[in-house]
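Teaching assistant's notes for section 4

Start the section by putting this record on the projector. Ask students to predict, before seeing the second block, whether Cytochrome P450 will look compact or extended. Collect guesses on the board.
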Amino acid sequence: MNGVTAHAGGVCEIDLSSPDVIADPFAAYGAAREHAPLARLLIPGMAPMWAVLRHGDARAMLNDPRFELTADTFAMRPEVSDEYRPYLRNMGEMEGAEHLRLRRLVAPAFTPRRAAAFRPRIEAVVAALLERLPEHAEDGAVDLMEHFARPLPIEVICELVDIPAADRPHWRAYGGVIAAGAGAGFADAVPAIIDSAKAAVAARRAEPGDDLVSDLVRAQAEDGDRLSDTEMVSLVWNIVLAGQTPTNLIANAVSELLAHPDQLAALRGDPGLMPGAVEELMRWCGHQLLAMPRFARQDAEIGGVAVGRGEPVTAAIAAANRDPRAFAEPDTLDVTRPRDGAQQLGFGHGPHFCLGASLARVQTQAALEALLLGHPALAPAGDGPDRAPDPGTWRLRSLPVML
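Reveal the predicted structure now:
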């Protein structure tokens, strides 16, 4: 396959700039996975990186303290003034006791039970966006990405953080820029969101309510430990950044279900399948192709391949989630797939498992249920979905549909 070079008796090299790899990363990583357990990723302008391709090896690496997240993992930071720089450090780049302390303090606000309790508020946001969809239609078609999947997460975050109505237009605007992850407005949006997060934290300390920040304030008070204001503000703004996961998952899921009408019919016929279907859709078309890179603390071995100290290593989620060693018929989308088998790695694994996974799951379930059941005639429109040429993220630029 173009972009994938197999070396006899060794690992493959995968050129992430190759149009073939960008167009079908699942085929590229899958071919490399069946050749060897690891591959070398060739990334323009960067040093080569190891990619762990098989599910068992990837799961083990993500849980292995010999491979750590560092500041270099998050090297692509926006340029901000010294005033805002402390807030850019996030829990993801912390390890050991520092990470455990912060995770223990904030975990009670992100439990599956708390996510389920938030569901009625999430459903209200979903309903409001769906009600406005016809207003955006042109010749009967509407871009589901622009008018539903992309605005949904920031609307939910505003609800969960309890942002005052007067401030929400600013959060929507800046949240959209942050979700795009690039452009001249990104560096301006980050301090704006941090300032808004400071105000939200101060308000909830003074008057706790029924929202995520209040949960965090209560959790630390009950525990006897205390999140610093910097830690609290950093967490809130990183919720804005990381909370965009449902955007691409929802859009990818709708696109794939429309392309697999039998699976769409199964979901409509039995909405009780939805929780398992979201796991299957995350396995099949989750947005994250590669995990955030780790760095080897020492010389190590993965799947019989030597990895040198200091070398970057990522889990190729696109390969691991379609590994026949872990999943029966992995190249088939099956919303009825049993949930008692291997777990998809779209939310990661180990100590850095996605903190907001429960919220993302509930949000995606609520969005898909309301959209698919409320619009039984939903169908692709025009030339169909437009996929972004992004080697790291499986995402759409647009998703035109007929309602």
